[in-house]
Amino acid sequence: MEIVSALRSALQQQVGRERYELWFGAGADLSLDGDRLVVTAPNLFLQEWLRRNFRAELQSAGQVVLGRPLSLDFQLATSAAPSAAAPMDTAPLTPPPPGPATAPRLSYSAPPCKADPQLAAKTVSPTAAIGRRFSSLDSFVVGDSNRLAHTTANMVAGRMGAWSPLVVHGPTGVGKTHLLEGVWSAVRKANPLSTAVFLSAEQFTSYFLEALRGSGLPNFRRKYRGVDLLIIDDVQFFAGKRATLVELLHTLDFLIEEGRQIVLSTDRPPAELDDLGRELVHRINAGMVCRIEPPEYDTRLGIVRRLAGKSGIRLNDDIIAYIAANLTGHARELSGAINRLHATHVALGEPINLAMAQETLAELIRYSARAVKLKDIELAICDVFGLERETLQSERRTKEISSPRMLAMWLARKHTRAALSEIGHYFGRRSHSTVVSAQKTVGGWMQSQQVLHVAQGRCTIDEAIRRVERLLQVG
Predict the structure, then answer these.
(1) DSSP H/E element including 446
(2) Helix axes 242-257 and 217-225, enclosed angle (nearest 10)
(3) Which of 116, 174, 226, 348 lies at a 20 to 30 A Cα distance from 408?
(4) Mind giving me the DSSP string for 266-306?
């Protein structure tokens, strides 16, 4: 037993504590039989996973402890049987077994969470299962803010499994769900026999917990691993849900191993999703990661035109330009503007002209204008740090200026809808990579509680942020 304990300790040092606890702390046993290290797994999935991914580490641990190489024997526990799982998302789970080769394939969009979760288990035609009309890639308005994500989505739809997982991230209202729906629609149109599942992270969690309570894990696992395409929206919802995260990790690993396509969306870069766990973040980062920025002016013009056409109302170029110039946030604001114009037109029976549009949208535009601007952040930073106005826009690189400038860029990413390139250009004509670097630097300051020199003396980075945000009235 002492030798086995030493082997486990050496193995943990080889693979890291988190990977060790995830894969070897979930029912995998080690035993020594002469020069043979026996690795016993509770199910076929874990047995095969350990055989494929940890052979070298196991042999290295044996060499460290015993000073000689050991042969490896991967066995399946003879009494392996699924244990009753607690209906709690904090309960630890053993790695799940793969579904059989003949697992039923599905083609559906998950119903809302309030619906009967068992509905999701039915194999139905795509049109019968979809309560909503899915968007298409063709209807996605493309601009500089989203071109990479749109191009990659088309590539994924045409060659599934080549870029898996595809991860699309960005703030709310920039078209992430539209793009995911477009991939689903394109795959189903190109190959009606393909099997695809589209659901939100909340739905995945709900169905998983329902499977735990009803002892239906085998069916749940066969369902989500028997697909050609798995799309999950709003992955950040999984944060802190330990059992669901373990299940999701095994599901993604299985699909990637099988060459299937995974598409995910999140509201922030994967590197900032610490609450999802290092293992899952590594899986996500190993795929194709694309950011969607808030739409720039030309893209907003295209969105307004498309929304107006969809609503069946005719807008002249002056009105379209007015809306795009004054509503600079996300597509939902633009959609709200079109809906207001349409409703006013129907209610009053008046034609939509520029004067009518200005009056109808005045309140919406005033509300949108309350958003923090780059100029606001610049003035607040200069006030807190005792700098002259427009100092942050200069070419000067001294520490007294560069540190406040980096904090300004960080706050701009947090409180504005400006694109990386726009932020960089505003603060000294820097590139977008400088803004990304500033984000990482300030993140490091926050972890170490860096002390900064401000106008009133010295304070921690958290206190400096609070002072600036008080001036912006967003803290």
Answers:
(1) helix 432-448
(2) 40
(3) 174
(4) ESS-GGG-GGG-HHHHHHHHTSEEEE-PPP-HHHHHHHHHH
Per-residue model confidence (pLDDT) at position 184 = 93
Q: Could you give the angle at which helices 201-213 and 217-225 cross, rounded to 10 degrees?
A: 150
Contact 195, 225 (CB under 8 A): no
Given this model, what pLDDT does residue 61 score? 84
Query: Which pLDDT belongs to residue 81?
Result: 42
Dihedral of alpha carbons 303, 307, 310, 316, sign: negative
Helices and strands (DSSP H and E) totals, the chain? 21, 11
- Which residue in 92, 74, 75 sits closest to 83, CA to CA? 92
Residue type, position 2, single letter: E
Given a cut of 90, whether residue 83 has pLDDT beyond it is no
Q: Report the 10 Å Cβ neighbour count for 293.
A: 22
Task: Give the pair of three-digit tokens for residue 52.
Answer: 């494929």
34-67 exposure pattern, b = at least 16 Cβ within 10 A, e = fewer:
eeebebbbbbebbbbbbeeebeebbbbbbeebbe
Highest averaged pLDDT of the listed ranges 112-126, 242-256, 260-274: 242-256
41 bridge partner residues = 76
Order across the sheet with 29-33: list the strands. Answer: 29-33, 36-41, 71-76
- Supply 447's token pair: 């972890």
d(C-alpha 201, C-alpha 181), whole Å:
15
Residue 108: what pLDDT? 42
State how far the alpha carbon of 316 is from the alpha carbons of 322, 323, 343, 344, 346, in Å.
10, 11, 17, 17, 18
Q: How far apart, in whole angstroms, are the C-alpha atoms of residue 299 and residue 324? A: 9
- Give 467's pLDDT tier (boundaries 50, 70, 90): confident
Residues 6+ apart with CB under 8 A from 334: 300, 303, 304, 307, 323, 324, 327
Whether the CA torsion 20, 25, 27, 28 is positive or negative: it is positive
